[in-house]
Design goal:
InterPro entries: LIPB1/2_CC, LIPB1/2_SAM_1, LIPB1/2_SAM_2nd, Liprin, SAM, SAM/pointed_sf. Keywords: Coiled coil, Repeat. The chain has 548 residues and is mainly α. Among the domains are: 178 residues, no CATH class; 151 residues, Transcription Factor, Ets-1 (DNA polymerase, domain 1). Helices cover 58% and strands 0% of the residues. α3 packs antiparallel against α4 and α17 crosses α18. 26% of the residues are buried. The C terminus is likely disordered.
Length: 548
């Protein structure tokens, strides 16, 4: 019993010690809980402040984009007004010149009459001199005075016209200096050409280039093989390849030297290491050899940079300008060419492909794209296919989606992509506009407007195509990879022509259209008949299995 009582006392002592420890731990736990509540409160307040900051930043970005859109629109409007004013001044100047020419003709006839009368009097002066010496002298003096008075009027009038022409030339040169505010190099501009803007211009492609626009005097009827060394060098300057003129002058004897050269000679003798520059030169020389007139050759590389603005891909203007990509190169662009130009997005490949096709349809008319809303209320697909990126943004503003319109900058969305690519749907457009998926009413409104734009039949065929083929929807994350040849292909390389190896973005012939990435489908009826490129036989359509 004594031992048990001792154990009991020790246990009681241990229990009291443990009780004290539990109480101390409870105090610590209560302190930690209060500290945790305080930190949680601070965290909640910080999250609220962050959310408010994000909302404020989003609203500021939206305002910034809207202001950028307004500034761009005002710039375009200012350019149009300047162009209209310039044409008005030019027409007025021409009218004044015609009026002045009329006065000059009248004065010339007057002087001619006086000269005839003076000659007549001089002829009969000898016979009349004896009998009517005083009368003839008075008549001759009168005619001479009138003649000199008329000549004085002519001289004074010509001086006035000269001063007016000098004044108009001064105004025109000031206008050229004011409008050439872009970032072009000196080799791209010519002293006798009027160019508007530079690589940053968004006024759209208004200028084209013709073979006669060069500053070097060349007879275009003379075959290229007979051109002299200086004529060839001058042509290279005009063609945007002026950096190779020095080596060319040391190597080339005549145009025949370039025509008979091999592709590796351009790199060895002229120092053309840029593959697109070699391709540009080869395409031009092929045009000289075949004497084929291609409308695309009239569009220079400056026009192409402005064309990129129109189709909504201005972020690639520096690469295209560096590669000197002109209209003829657009016609023969390949997938690897675009990858070399750092265009890796599948959506952007499709955008460029559809835009090139629109150029084919319109025979490379530099003014085929529409940039401003017209009088059409219900545009047809053949009209929508010619809409530029800016025109699509104007349509978004018209259907009460103005706050999302600036998101299309740099997206590559234009009318040709909307109409020609069956995988491009209202969901794709909503994704590019950054409309959240939870805004179902807004997306439904966009789908309704999109259906009204492309037509009910087109929307139905787009939906059927997507469901039948099972293609993944277009996304901005999809990339294009260069094609790699396996070992089995190398045995056939020597048997194939160089043109057969070219994977053109937009093939010229209808037979090659099926090889286009993502474009191997038959266009719907709304755009059939626009071009032989789209009007293929039904059996050329990709085999599609029946719906399950």
């Amino acid at each position: 019993m004594t031992r048990l009582e001792g154990d009991k006392e020790s246990l009681v002592l241990q229990v009291s010690v443990l009780t004290d420890q539990v109480e101390a731990q409870g105090v610590k736990i209560s302190d930690l809980e209060s500290s945790l509540e305080e930190h949680q409160h601070k965290l909640n307040s910080t999250e609220e402040m962050l959310q408010q900051e994000l909302l404020s930043r989003t609203s500021l970005e939206s305002q910034k984009l809207n202001l950028m859109g307004e500034v761009s629109y005002l710039k375009l409007k200012l350019v149009d007004m300047e162009e209209k004013q310039f044409h008005g001044v030019e027409r007025q100047h021409k009218a004044e010149k015609m009026k002045d020419c009329k006065h000059i003709v009248i004065l010339w006839y007057c002087i001619h009459g006086y000269m005839m009368e003076l000659q007549r009097l001089k002829t009969g002066m000898e016979t009349l001199l004896v009998a009517n010496d005083e009368k003839v002298s008075r008549r001759l003096s009168k005619v001479t005075i009138n003649l000199f008075f008329s000549l004085g009027l002519v001289v004074r009038f010509l001086n006035i016209m000269y001063s007016m022409s000098m004044k108009s030339n001064t105004v025109l040169s000031s206008r050229i200096r004011r409008t050439q505010s872009g970032g072009l190099q000196g080799e791209d501009l010519e002293p006798n050409q009027f160019r508007r803007g530079g690589l940053r211009a968004t006024a759209g492609p208004r200028l084209t280039r013709t073979p006669e626009s060069g500053s070097t005097v060349r007879d275009m009827n003379t075959p290229f093989s007979q051109w002299t060394r200086e004529q060839v060098c001058g042509w290279l300057e005009d063609y945007g390849l002026g950096q190779y003129v020095n080596l060319t002058r040391q190597w080339v004897d005549s145009g025949q030297t370039l025509l008979s050269a091999r592709p590796q000679d351009f790199e060895k003798e002229m120092g053309i290491n840029h593959p697109l520059h070699r391709k540009k030169l080869q395409l031009a020389l092929r045009g000289f050899s075949t004497k084929a007139l291609e409308k695309s050759s009239e569009l220079d590389h400056i026009w192409v940079t402005r064309w990129l603005d129109d189709i909504g891909l201005p972020q690639y203007k520096d690469q295209f300008h560096e590669g000197r990509v002109d209209g003829r190169m657009l016609q023969y662009l390949t997938v690897n060419d675009l990858l070399f130009l750092k265009v890796t997005s599948q959506l952007h490949h499709l955008s460029i492909k559809c835009a090139i096709h629109v150029l084919h349809v319109n025979k490379f008319n530099p003014h085929c794209l529409r940039r401003r809303p017209g009088e059409e209320r219900n545009p047809s697909p053949s009209e929508v296919i010619q809409w530029s990126n800016h025109r699509v943004m104007e349509w978004l503003r018209a259907v009460d989606l103005a706050e999302y319109a600036p998101n299309l900058r740099g997206s590559g969305v234009h009318g040709g992509l909307i109409i020609l690519e069956l995988r491009f749907s209202s969901e794709t457009l909503a994704m590019l506009l950054n409309i959240p998926p939870q805004k179902t009413l807004l997306r439904r409104h966009l789908a309704t407007a999109f259906t009204a734009l492309v037509g009910t039949q087109a929307s139905l065929e787009k939906r059927e195509y997507a469901n039948a083929t099972g293609h993944a929807p277009l996304t901005t994350a999809a990339k294009v990879r260069p094609k790699k040849l396996g070992f089995t292909h190398f045995s056939h390389l020597r048997k194939r022509r160089p043109d057969d190896l070219a994977d053109y973005i937009c093939p010229i012939d209808s037979g090659g259209l099926s090889a286009m990435n993502g474009f191997s489908h038959l266009p719907y009826a709304g755009v059939r008949g626009l071009s032989p490129i789209l009007d293929r036989e039904p059996e050329r359509r990709e085999q599609v299995g029946p719906k399950s």
